[in-house]
Specification:
InterPro entries: Bact_polysacc_biosynth/exp (IPR050445), P-loop_NTPase (IPR027417)
Strand order of the largest sheet: 5-13-12-6-11-7-10-9-8-14
Strand content: 15-25%
Largest sheet: 10 strands, mixed
Helix content: 40-55%
CATH topology of the largest domain: Rossmann fold
CATH class of the largest domain: Alpha Beta
Number of domains: 3
Shape: rod-shaped
Keywords: Membrane, Transmembrane, Transmembrane helix
Protein name: Lipopolysaccharide biosynthesis protein
Distance between the termini: 55 Å
């Protein structure tokens, strides 16, 4: 139950984190918003306005007396669906074109501007016409409504005329036959024959009377197809949402598209991007995030950057895993390692400021140059006792540089040098004895190594230092790279104490501007220098 409650409490935090990750892609969100606003503005100002006007026609069936109820309702006499198809047909469009003064070939174009609808449960046809001007819209709707009525009335009148003619064609032979029977009756003398002819004459008279009545009813039919109940008038405003709404709608849609793009970019982005992602990938806390700073000295001045380094140093000092051994390895996952050198130097200065004997070891033997980038204290050069180490390696035998860290005091630097066999040098007994200086009370050793994923040098030192600090830019470092670093460090027997994040572009060209090859002279080649035993380190002082 506690786990469920904890999960429910973490859901808002997870949602907040996802929203923050999406909003990090400001370029995508801003581009989507700008594109939406431009599209809305184009539709608002670039497209021509359109106007729509409507007229309505009440459709009726032909009848003798429209005021007499025949028992059949009008909607039963009229197939309104067929009437709607007729109203939208070519014949009505041709008549409307003539009423508008257009040629017959323009009928199809006029049909594209017309829409005929039927309100539910009515026998009303609504003619909606769209045009570029209000007047043209009203004229088009009225023209189509009147053209439909004219066409329907002509069709009804034509049908009635054909029916009347058909009945007349039936009536004429009957009338002639009746006249023949009358002549025959006048000539007959017998009563029996005369009664037979009179009966036939009466039968013909009934048929003639019925046909005559039918013809009279057809001629009396009112062939009016319907009435215009609503006359179209010029509209006062154009159709559409209007300029402000179109621009606002474009902005909303563009913002939605931009957020969708940012969300997809976040989902498929291989880089870590955030401190939370770095912490999950390394399974270690984020010790600090360095602010942006312009190019300058490697050691931070007394400003926000220096305070951030002090914060990281204090967190490490109170970490029990580091306090037991006080051996720290500073590395980057990949890259040139310039930011790792900055972090290592400033953390060493923080330990010196805390009153420890701090030693910075530059274990980057492939591209050394840290000594040329740090200020030396007066008479800050000394040599290791014994010159070359016992196993014949050229490093760390050589000089020891005392670095002036300003108000933080001083600390010792063992500068790196180029050697032929890097792996043999880093695993030598002399290197092990050098790092074991941290076993002395109040002593801290910080080791700077090349990027973990570029060379295996850092892994050769992991089992000697135990604690590792990973320096990375979350915007350019992939999550898989951080996970790979953690797996390599765990497999080598070490542990990641935490990560220090930095923004991109920090002193990328410092190595190019400040790095210089520092030769390691033999002890006899350095006059006036004091020979110092390996286990003596200068204490930090103000």
């Amino acid at each position: 139950m506690n786990e469920e409650a904890r999960a429910q409490q973490d859901e808002p935090e997870l949602l907040r984190h996802q929203v923050q990750q999406v909003l990090r892609h400001r370029v995508l969100v801003g581009s989507g918003l700008l594109a939406g606003l431009l599209a809305g503005s184009w539709f608002a100002f670039g497209s021509a306005p359109t106007y729509e006007s409507s007229s309505e026609v009440l459709v009726r069936a032909a009848t003798i007396n429209p005021y007499v109820v025949t028992g059949i309702s009008a909607d039963k006499q009229i197939n309104i669906g067929s009437e709607r198809q007729t109203a939208a047909g070519n014949a009505v469009a041709a008549r409307a074109a003539r009423r508008l003064g257009r040629s017959a070939s323009a009928a199809s174009d006029l049909q594209g501007h017309l829409q005929v609808t039927n309100p539910p449960n009515t026998v009303v046809l609504k003619f909606s016409y769209v045009a570029a001007t209000p007047k043209a819209a009203a004229e088009g709707a009225n023209a189509f409504a009147q053209a439909y009525l004219d066409y329907r009335e002509k069709q009804t009148a034509g049908t009635v005329a054909k029916m009347v003619q058909g009945y007349k064609n039936q009536l004429n032979p009957l009338a002639k036959q009746r006249e023949d029977l009358i002549d025959q009756t006048n000539k007959l003398q017998g009563d029996t024959e005369k009664s037979t002819v009179l009966a036939a004459q009466a039968n013909l008279l009934g048929q003639i009377t019925q046909l005559t009545n039918t013809i009279s009813e057809l001629k009396a039919l009112d062939t009016t197809a319907g009435y215009v109940t609503v006359t179209a008038e010029p509209p006062k405003k154009a159709e559409g949402l209007g300029t402000p709404l179109l621009i606002a709608l474009g902005g909303v849609i563009g913002l939605a598209v931009g957020l969708l793009g940012a969300w997809l970019r976040m989902i498929f982005d291989p880089s870590a991007r955030s401190a939370e992602t770095v912490a999950r990938a390394l399974r270690a806390p984020v010790l600090g995030a360095l602010p942006k700073s312009p190019d300058g000295p490697l050691l931070a001045a007394d400003d926000a950057l220096a305070e951030q380094y002090r914060s990281v140093g204090f967190r490490l000092a109170y970490d029990r895993r580091f306090a037991d051994r006080r051996r720290l390895l500073v590395v980057e996952p990949n890259g040139e390692g310039t930011t790792a050198a900055e972090v290592a130097a400033n953390l060493t200065a923080c330990f010196a400021e805390a009153g420890m004997s701090a030693l910075l070891v530059e274990a980057d033997l492939r591209r050394p140059g840290l000594a040329g980038r740090l200020p030396e204290a007066p008479r800050g050069r000394a040599t290791w006792a014994g010159g070359r180490s016992a196993d014949g390696t050229a490093w760390p035998a050589g000089r020891l540089v005392t670095v002036d860290a300003g108000e933080s005091g001083t600390f010792e630097l063992v500068p790196g040098t180029r050697v032929q066999h890097v792996a043999r040098t880093l695993t030598s007994a002399a290197t092990t004895r050098l790092i074991e200086q941290a076993n002395a009370p109040g002593t801290t050793v910080v080791v700077l190594a090349p990027p973990v994923l570029s060379y295996a040098d850092a892994l050769a030192l992991v089992d000697r230092v135990d604690g590792v600090v990973v320096v990375c830019d979350p915007r350019t470092t992939a999550r898989t790279a951080l996970e790979r670093v953690r797996e390599l460090i765990d497999g080598a027997g070490g542990q990641v104490l935490g990560a220090v994040l930095h923004p991109g572009g920090r002193r990328r060209d410092n190595r190019r501007r400040h790095t210089k090859t520092v030769p390691v002279p033999a002890p006899a080649a350095v006059p006036h220098d004091e020979t110092v035993p390996l286990n003596r380190l200068s204490s930090g002082s103000r």
